[in-house]
């Protein structure tokens, strides 16, 4: 069995979706908003990926910009979902967890406008016995699928958050770090958090597991060293 570090990406609305090469096809990291499914079909055609090549859908967490068209994708492809157990009640109802806060006043102000016309719901994702529900870190599953990497539990943005770190240092971190809305001064922090110290612990865990290049769901990739710079700036402030 070949274990690879290969990946491709597409961008839909605000979300980067990453495709990791795996045995007999691809593991897709995250979908986007429900409305983006048709755009998704067009964009994967351009990078030569067929719907039928998508074997697994890895959800970093349950938010609508990540799980938005998960139900539709699974219906069309039969892909198996890989997700943390804490996501299940929210996926089943198509709603977000409620206890997250904007990271600063600028984000709060920016999102006041957005929230006025955005519905955070999404079509419910009902898991089946074929899906893979994780309880924390997992160092075996990806290797079995032909991907040279590990899955890490990385809470702080949400309580169900998972990330992937590959053996070559590429880390796909969902929303536990962002490179987005620079004018808000977030400096790699998520725009919404449940607890910023838990976010910083998750960053440390990524680095301890060899993360070197950070591929966030929102914004361009960046050097893992930026996480430590940001943490020093904001820890205890
Ligand atoms: Zn999120
Ligand atoms: Zn997001």
Structure description:
By secondary structure, the chain is an alpha/beta fold. The protein is 29% helix and 23% strand. It has helices spanning 37-46, 64-67, 70-77, 88-93, 105-117, 141-145, 196-208, 225-234, and strands at 7-12, 15-22, 25-29, 54-58, 80-84, 101-102, 132-134, 149-153, 162-166, 170-172, 192-193, 213-215, 222-223. A 6-stranded mixed β-sheet has the order 1-2-3-4-5-7. It has a 5-stranded mixed β-sheet with strand order 8-9-10-12-13. A two-stranded antiparallel sheet has the order 6-11. Strand 2 and strand 3 (25-29) form a beta hairpin. The radius of gyration is 17 Å and the shape is globular. It starts with 6 loop residues before the first strand and ends with a helix. The mean pLDDT is 95. The protein binds zinc ion (ZN) (2 copies). Residues 61, 63, 157, 175 line the site of one zinc ion (ZN).
| Unreliable spans | none
Major β-sheet annotation: 6 strands, mixed
Rg, rounded, reads: 17 Å
Q: Which class of secondary structure composition applies to the elements? A: alpha/beta
Give the count of helical stretches.
Answer: 8
> What is the helix fraction of residues, given as a range?
25-40%
- In CATH, what is the class? Alpha Beta
- Which H/E pattern describes the elements? EEEHEHHEHEHEHEEEEHEEH
Number of strands: 13
Average pLDDT taken over every residue: 95
**Roughly how many Å apart are the termini?**
48 Å
Total separate domains? 1
Spatial shape: globular
């Amino acid at each position: 069995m070949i274990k690879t570090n290969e990946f491709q990406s597409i961008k839909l609305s605000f979300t980067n979706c990453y495709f990791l090469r795996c045995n007999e096809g691809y593991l897709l990291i995250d979908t986007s908003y429900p409305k983006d499914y048709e755009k998704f079909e067009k964009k994967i055609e351009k990078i030569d990926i067929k719907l039928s090549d998508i074997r697994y859908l890895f959800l970093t967490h349950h938010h609508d910009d990540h799980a938005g068209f998960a139900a539709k994708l699974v219906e069309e492809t039969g892909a198996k979902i890989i997700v943390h157990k804490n996501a299940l009640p929210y996926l089943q109802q198509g709603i977000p967890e409620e206890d997250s806060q904007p990271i600063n006043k600028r984000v709060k102000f920016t999102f006041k406008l957005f929230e006025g016309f955005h519905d955070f719901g999404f079509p419910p994702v009902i898991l089946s016995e074929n899906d893979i529900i994780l309880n924390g870190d997992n160092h075996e599953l990806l290797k079995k699928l032909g991907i040279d990497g590990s899955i890490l539990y990385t809470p702080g943005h949400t309580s169900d958050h998972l990330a992937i770190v590959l053996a070559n240092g590429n880390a796909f971190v969902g929303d536990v770090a962002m490179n987005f809305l620079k004018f808000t001064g977030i400096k790699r922090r998520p725009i919404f958090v449940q607890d910023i110290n838990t976010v910083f612990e998750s960053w440390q865990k990524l680095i301890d597991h060899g993360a070197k290049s950070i591929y966030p769901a929102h914004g361009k990739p960046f050097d893992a060293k930026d996480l430590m710079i940001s943490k020093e700036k904001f820890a205890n402030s």
